[in-house]
Amino acid sequence: MEKVLFAVLTLVYLELSMRVVSAPICSYGQAGCHVPSLADLFERVIQQSSRMHSVSSDLHSEFEQYFFPRKNLIRKRKCHTYDILTPEDKENAQKLGREQLTEVIVRLLQAWGEPLSELYQSMSQDQNQDFNLYSSNKALEISGILHELKDGVTIITEKMKLLGVLSNTVGYNSPESLVPSSAFYTQADLDSMDHHDLLYCFRRDSNKAKNYLRILKCTTLPEPDC
Amino acid sequence: MRRDLRGALLLLLTAAVQSSSMSAPGKPVLLSCRSPEKETFTCWWEPGSDGGLPTTHHLYYERERLEGTYECPDYLSAGRNSCFFDKNHTSIWVDYYLTVTASNALGNATSDPFKMDVMEIVKPDAPGNVTLRVEEREASPCLHVRWMPPSNTDTKSGWVTIKYELRVKKDNSNNWKEYTSGTQTHFSLYSVSPGGVYTVQVRCLLDHGSWSEWSNTTFVKISNYLQNERPLSMLISILSAILFIMAGLILIAKRKSVKQWVLPPVPGPKIRGINSQLLQSGGSDDVGNVLIIKQSFPPIYFVWQDQMEDYLIVTENEDWLSSNSQKSLIPACFHFNSEIHSKESPCHQNDWEKDEEISQVDNNNKPFTNTGYVDFQRHVENVDVKHVDYSRVKEVKRDNILFLEKEKVQSSGYIHFQRQEGIPEDYSGVKEVESDHLVVLQKQNAADLSCKDEGNHYTECALHKPRKPHVCTELSDSGYVDTIPAPPLM
Question: How many Å apart are CA B217 and CA B130, to the nearest integer?
Fold first, then answer.
């Protein structure tokens, strides 16, 4: 028995000491860490948003197949992010400018933090539906990616400000000074949305976020083939 | 007057007949909408019956975040029964509610509402300008494919990300091999072989939309001429192939010696007194008998049949009698191991008679008891020793004639004798066997008796014969008869 314990301890020690370490990533270039370029950061963030949209799209279509197999239902729904004004085509998005585009992205992401975690909570608690049991994992995953995405966008804005690409009026210096997302919707708005609406709206908003991030990248880092 | 009336009646009738086939139009159905680049979109519908009258169709839509009902801005650009929404009229991430109304002189019909969001209906055009280029390389040819993105997609601004897929098939088979190309507009195929016609198609995908149609097929034929090049290398390869074949044939012809050289024989372990063949092929009681006999019986020498094994020393005495019957011949192979035995004194072989014939025993060196037991062996097969039968000695005449009792001591297995320690065993050669109860033993020389008993009753003796690895000799039936002191069973 002691031998087993010793072996386990040795393995744990080895694991901890010999972990493959790439240089820690930091934004400010402190000693010993590897500073990713803006292009890398954008790449990462766009990948994350793409994944987030993909999972939410799957979740939505599964939901519809499970609950509404005959696609007759036409509902006029209103998403709680309705009041966040977003550009609705390419020209408007390109006209918006980096600062405003960044703000829109940030607002969209912030608006979904709480509703997603509540969605996950209610899905995992609702044991009656098999669908909820199965897909609450996806809701959890989406929630996690969203959280990371928010952090990623924060880092990008900081870096852009550092590089002088973005003016300092944007966002995170004092998160509450700018109009927070919560100003754009009320709890009543959220309560009136059921799971179906939430999934539908999030699918749309994640697609928006992904598109805006890509435009932001391509206008900030001009490349021949963006 | 009547003609006019009839004419009017006829006209009325025809008018009535005609008007009964006319009706309001049937309900049109909205089929699908599609946006090729996420900036414009087109919708198509299917008209219902036209009711026999010229019917017009109108598409009306309502839009999220837009008040009012609007009509289709362009009925023409996309063909019949379609509506094209240009950039100014297209908004992404908002719901459109479309309806088509068919109307003719007799009425209207409206389709069911159709809800769509441009984000969901993205399906690009197929990539264009697919070009194939064959690169001739030494080992095998390779196929480079290049194409252009569809002309209407804007990849430069990052509005959409394009992904490509291509598929290849060879000649006329129906097996397409698919490859993903990511965002590159070129791809190289290395698994192509000369002498075939390759067909390549490419398709693309925007963001999370639907795949486009496959592009037009492009063919390329990879010629065979590579096979004719470099005759020198072909010659070399042919020559080396011939050499290999010859070497292989030589190896096969000499496979035995090769096998000896590569895998030299390994002597197996020997346990004295245990015949591995007996163990493998014999019954369980034989095995048991083998083990039991060690303790109490005179040693039984098993003859080794395996030519690769070495054997304990055995001498061959030229004076042995040959018997009348052939059955008593014991063919045996002896293999002399010169390393084990170094004594030079000859030894008498202890061997058992094969069947129940009796020889006269001659023993003038040792006291001969009146009643002793003669050990027989009954060979079932050539070599293996399985059973031992005993016959009682009835009378001893002179020194070398044994009369055995006619009835044999039946032994199913072995009889355990109480052997008195200290009494040396002695063996005499059987000279002759007459009838079935007369044994004539050989007169022995003292010099012959120089074998020593070992602890386990085996006698190891030096080589008597010149060393030969495989000596198969036929022994006469004149083996040795064991003299046993008066058994307590008497």
Answer: 8
Q: What is the mean pLDDT of each run of 10 residues along chain A (226 residues)?
A: 85 72 59 77 92 92 81 76 89 89 91 89 76 80 93 90 78 51 76 84 94 91 76
Task: Report the C-alpha gap between A168 and A158 in whole angstroms.
Answer: 9
Q: What angle do CA B281, B282, B285 make, to 5 degrees?
A: 155
- Distance, in Å, from the CA atom of B137 to the CA atom of B403, rounded to the nearest integer, reads 98
Provide the whole-model pTM.
0.57
The CA-to-CA distance between both ends of chain B, in Å, stands at 163
**Which residue is listed with tokens 């191991």?**
B337
Let me know the angle formed at the C-alpha of A78 by A200 and A74, rounded to the nearest 5 degrees: 65
Half-sphere exposure of B168 (CA within 13 A, CB side): 22
Q: Which of A211, A48, A77, A53 is nearest to B92 (CA)?
A: A211
Give the pairing type, strands B427-434 and B401-409. Answer: unpaired
* CA torsion, ordered B271, B275, B276, B278, to nearest 10 deg: -150
Size of interface A-B (CB pairs under 8 A): 56
Amino acid at B99: T
pLDDT tens across B190-217, in order? Answer: 888 888 888 999 999 998 889 999 998 8
In chain B, how many H helices and how many E strands? 5, 24
Our separate counts of H helices and E strands in chain A read 7, 0
Is B363:B441 a contact under the CB 8 Å cutoff? yes
Give dist(CA B12, CA B14) in Å, integer.
Answer: 5
Q: Least CA distance to A92: which residue of chain B? A: B91
Residues belonging to chain A: 226
The backbone torsions φ and ψ at residue B4, rounded to the nearest 5 degrees and listed phi first, read: -65, -40
Contact between A190 and A62 under an 8 Å Cβ cutoff? The reply is no
For residue B198, the surrounding DSSP H or E stretch is strand B196-206
Indicate yes or no: CB of B157 within 8 angstroms of CB of A217.
no
Q: Is residue A218 a contact partner of residue A226, using CB atoms and an 8 Å limit?
A: yes
SS3 sequence of B381-392: CCCCEEEEEEEE
Q: Which residues pair with B198 in a beta bridge?
A: B170, B220
Compare CB distances from A74 to B92, B115, B159 and report the shortest one's residue. Answer: B115
The one-letter amino acid code at A152 reads G
Is B352 a residue whose pLDDT tops 50? no
Q: What ipTM is given for this predicted complex?
A: 0.81
Confidence of residue B245 (pLDDT cuts 50, 70, 90): very high
How far apart CA B467 and CA B336 sit, in angstroms, is: 6
- Mutate which of B38, B93, B152, B210 to test chain A, going by most A C-beta atoms within 10 A? B93
Residues B204/B211, Cβ–Cβ less than 8 Å: yes
Question: For residues A11 and A7, what is the distance between their CA atoms, to the nearest angstrom?
Answer: 6
Measured CA to CA, the distance from residue B374 to residue B202 in angstroms comes to 99
CA dist., res. A107 & res. A129, Å (int): 32
In the numeric block, the tokens 């194939």 are attached to B132
Interface of B with A in 72-131 (CB under 8 A): 87, 90-95, 97, 113, 115, 117, 119
Nearest to B212 by CA among B303, B111, B124: B124
Q: Look at residue B467 and give its three-state secondary structure.
A: coil
Burial B289-321 (b: 16+ CB within 10 A, else e): bbeebeeebbbbbbbbbeeebbbbbbbebeebb
